[in-house]
Amino acid sequence: MKILKKTALIYCEKEFGLIDGKVAAGLVRHSEIYTIVGVIDSLLAGKDAGEVLGDKKSNIPIFANLDESLSSLSTIPDCYIYGKAPLDIYISEEERCLILEAMGKGMDIINGLHQFFSEDPEFARMAIEYDVKIKDIRKPPSLKDSHVFTGQISKVNIPVIAVLGTDCACGKRTTAVELNKALKNVGLKSVLVVTGQTGLMQGEKYGVSMDALISQFAIGELENAVIQAFETENPDIILVEGQSAVSHPAFMSSIGILKGSVPNGVILQHPPARKFRCDFPDLLMPTVEKEIQLIESISQSQVMAIALNHENLTREEILTIIEDYEGRFRLPTTDILNYGCQKLVQVLSDRFPNLNHKIMQRRLEEIALLAVR
């Protein structure tokens, strides 16, 4: 059944295309439930959102402010999405006013912050007055609906692959989303389990916002999401989106992902030009070697491939790094936004014979169908 998408305007003032604008970037690139009709960022007004991200033209305009967007669009969007992921705990007074204005125009509010708008007395009152909904993506399940780890993950007898990284906001979700598409395109039934607010906003059916959960339940909630995907979908492979980095001192989510999903393999995402961890200018980036050693020392999983983030690098520099990494680490390495997921699909089919068998079967069926035609 085809999902009827809601139209949405994304607020990303002064952050679109930057690290803290990753929610907006993810939704511009992919969403199963929203049709993005515009982005608000006064610094980039007049540009195309896809082109700003270095992708092809998306025909999603960037507006200077809310007034300009509403006067330019043919209809008022269904939703107003707060599309930034800052370290700040609370939104600014100016941002509050814009949310209230969007409510007054009849737009539902989609919020990915830890600050729950539905629990804000003013927002809750205005939502009733204007008959709009507030959706707090990161709000955890109630205590009675929470899950602890059970060990039932051992019953998942298909490949589970985690896409981890060396830092926050380095492309883990993008690689997971694109690899999921690529696996489906070669005939595999692939399911993506997401672990952050953007993936849930993009409409993935299975997942939890790991960093919003009580630590007692974080691992169990992810285990439950993987088991639900396995039992409900009967997939050939499950991908799990990573969060932060195992080595990152500020966050625990990646360790929880390793424990909760018990992956059969890891794809490691890395931004080679990044010198310091994003939002932490005093913390040096880890090396790929150290991150691989850490992942493999605290889990039974092995890193199977490396995916690169090409921020601040030329095409020539990326190609040189790919050649260097493949020589040094003996691991397939690619930049999926520039060169696609072929290497990643190949390494998975090489490591897991059942996947390769199903891919070959699909190709034979396609050849037979062409012959009939």
TrEMBL record:
D-glutamate N-acetyltransferase-like C-terminal domain: residues covered: 147-345
Ranges in a coiled coil: none
Pfam families hit by this protein: DUF1611 (PF07755), DUF1611_N (PF17396)
Ranges of residues in domain D-glutamate N-acetyltransferase-like N-terminal: 44-140
Protein name: DUF1611 domain-containing protein
